[in-house]
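dumping this here before i forget
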Amino acid sequence: MQQFFKNSWEEVTKEVTWPKWSELQSSATLVLIASIIFALVVGVIDFLIDSGLNLFYRSI
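structure:
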């Protein structure tokens, strides 16, 4: 078990290529913008379905 953790630590510190801070920021910004757009689309669809169902049930 000790050898496993030692090898894992070596791999993480010496063999993994980590993104630069600017790349990380641009990726995070992209994810944030995509999440906001997705939430707005789902909100609009929810609003339309809710309005349509309310209209339908009022006419009955």
